[in-house]
């Protein structure tokens, strides 16, 4: 199978995933659902988005945003020559860079001889280890890589959100931050480690087989699942649009170079509008940070234009 055909197979898979996620979003009425239902909805839908992102990471990295691709390359823990070998097998091609993969392992002190007729990339991905042994060793390494990522994510906001209570109960706040760091690091390391378990290697199995890796999100708190899900949704949609444009299903746009800036501006406008007039839609911790950054605005239901307009229309 040629690489162009390989791309043509991936695009319909991305289209099916996108339509499936859209159907779930429209049918769930997430903004009207109870908090527990929202957490469950996010848990299952985020599996689909994570599957889409992870399969794009293996099969078509150029569809991902450069910063997100760099993040996945770091925490995915595999060199680009290894990913290329897995991609060749998934697309039904012979692995063209066997010598480069062997040289990569040799530079790390591992002598390995790869079979040109292999159908499953275990020997490419797992070095000289078995599947279980590689999973454990990779999990430990991935956990060490994840800790520096999540330590500032928890401790810096804690210093801002709990700035008034940090001197009164420092041990409680610090322990909570460290526990969150350990929990989120375990999620990321489990997510990355599970991606390298193979039974078969083809495009449908890569797209569908990465679904169990999204189950690692169950390790996170429900409140964190929503944040991670929304972030992955943005990356999945970006990858989807890029794939559709590459195979000709969508026109290549050269006029809108910085669409991300436009989206950011619109999102910021919505946030600031709600901050001024619909403060009750924010979680308390987010509202606390916004108040600290912008200053507490006038009481929204007494003096804002929204309140005046409602009063005049009665």
TrEMBL record:
What name does the UniProt record give this protein? Transmembrane protein 135 N-terminal domain-containing protein
Species assigned in the record? Solanum lycopersicum
Highest lineage ranks of the organism?
Eukaryota, Viridiplantae, Streptophyta, Embryophyta, Tracheophyta
